From TrEMBL:
Gene3D superfamilies: 3.40.50.2020. Homodimer. Belongs to the purine/pyrimidine phosphoribosyltransferase family. It comes from Brassica napus (Rape). This is adenine phosphoribosyltransferase.
């Protein structure tokens, strides 16, 4: 029974869980669509949803034993056992358990295997829950039920994260209930894709016009179905890719299973196209965001520089204003001083003139006196000419100097 049919319809946690599971085509063998739960373990939110949903369901069911199937049942079993207060019993691949063990052989989707359980681990009438990551044919769960019942336990239910409905695994569980969280979304997509690709060409994409955007005719058209298979991919790209590869690939199939594997390959190729486009778009967005941040930073720097310049300019204007005020005051002072200075200047010029005139008068007088002195010297020299009288005359002249 799927969780959606049992109270969890519309619960967004189921979609989160489903989205977190990766699908690998042709692993470990050709034709197998491997449901990889390791990607779910990388997503703590989705991982916790799984544990929470199981714990909510089993916490009041009086379960004392949680049996986990090696290897992936060992991942989900212990946190659930701890949360509901039950012990955890590992069901292991052959040769791994010490002590007394019981074992059961079973068939797998891709081979045969055997499970073993320790005899001491289980008490009679214990209420047990079997946990595994996935149910396909139900061979593994069936072997687990057998082991527990052989040891005397009562199996209340089997629980798996993923169920592959096409194998009808629940039919092999001896009437024990099976509780499954999600079915592989890839299977649904493959079925839808096959449905579209198997339609006659005339009906396949009749609404598609390569030159224009697609026209939607009716809700059940191929394009609508494609939209549900590839919700993120641009329809024109999708239709072109399908026309180029998908249709040829699927119409060449030799049977139903081969067609499914081929459709899966087409899906995988288209998924790659989609993710490559997403990566390019993300890179472009990243670059744009970086460029935007850089530009924003540059503009901010420029604005800051402008604000600083503006402050400097304001200060310069203020200083200039002060200087202007000083200059005006000095000018006023000068204006007041000029008449006084002019007066002083004129007086100085007049004084200078007076002095020059006086000087000239004095010079004339000096010349006059010198001439008179020369004349007197000559007359005295004439009067004291000869002998000692001449010497006397010289003395008189010297005195006159
Ligand atoms: O319903 P079934 O057809 O039995 O298949 C389901 C089992 O197959 C897988 O384990 P697998 O045997 O691959 O072992 P692993 O966990 O060790 O890889 C899965 O984890 C289940 O245990
Ligand atoms: N398709 C599948 N994916 C993952 N594990 C599986 N075990 C059996 N079938 C499987």
């Amino acid at each position: 029974m799927f969780a959606v049919e049992n109270g969890l319809q519309g619960d967004p946690r189921l979609q989160t869980i489903s989205d977190a599971i990766r699908v690998i085509p042709h692993f470990p063998k050709t034709g197998i669509m491997f449901q990889d739960i390791t990607t779910l373990l990388l997503d703590p939110v989705a991982f916790k949803h799984v544990v929470d949903i199981f714990v909510d369901r089993y916490k009041h069911m009086n379960i004392s034993l949680v049996a986990g199937v090696e290897a992936r049942g060992f991942i989900f079993g212990p946190p659930i056992a701890l949360a509901i207060g039950a012990k955890f019993v590992p069901l292991r691949k052959p040769g791994k358990l010490p002590g007394r063990v019981i074992s059961e052989e079973y068939e797998l989707e891709y081979g045969n295997d055997r499970l073993e359980m320790s005899m001491e681990a289980v008490k009679t009438h214990e209420r047990a829950l079997v946990i595994d990551d996935l149910v396909a044919t139900g061979g593994t769960l069936s072997a687990s039920i057998n082991l527990l019942e052989r040891a005397g336990a009562e199996v209340v239910e089997c629980a798996c994260v993923v169920g592959l409905p096409k194998f009808k695994g629940e039919c092999r569980l001896k009437g024990k209930p099976l509780y499954v969280l999600v079915e592989p979304s890839h299977d649904i997509r493959i079925e839808s894709l096959l449905h579209i690709l198997r339609r006659p060409a005339s009906k396949r994409f009749r609404c598609y016009s390569p030159s224009k955007s697609p026209i939607w005719s009716s809700p059940s058209s191929s394009l609508d179905q494609l939209r549900t298979v590839f919700p993120h991919l641009e329809l024109t790209v999708l239709v072109k890719a399908l026309e180029d590869h998908g249709i040829r690939e699927v119409t060449q199939s030799t049977g139903n299973d081969d067609a499914k594997v081929r459709a899966a390959t087409v899906l995988e190729a288209l998924a790659k196209v989609l993710s490559a486009r997403e990566q390019v778009a993300n890179k472009f967005q990243d670059c744009s965001r970086k460029r935007y941040r850089l530009n924003h930073w540059r503009v901010q720097q420029q604005v800051e520089a402008l604000i600083k310049d503006n402050a400097v300019l304001k200060r310069a204007v203020a200083i200039q204003h002060e200087r202007h005020k000083d200059t005006n005051q000095q000018l006023e002072l000068l204006k007041q001083l000029i008449p006084q200075n002019t007066r002083c200047f004129l007086i100085l010029i007049l004084n200078k003139r007076k002095m020059q005139v006086n000087n000239y008068g004095l010079n004339l007088r000096i010349q006059q006196v010198e001439q008179e002195t020369v004349c007197r010297k000559d007359s005295i020299r004439m009067s004291f000419k000869g002998g000692t009288g001449e010497e006397k005359a010289t003395n008189v002249i010297n005195k006159l100097r």
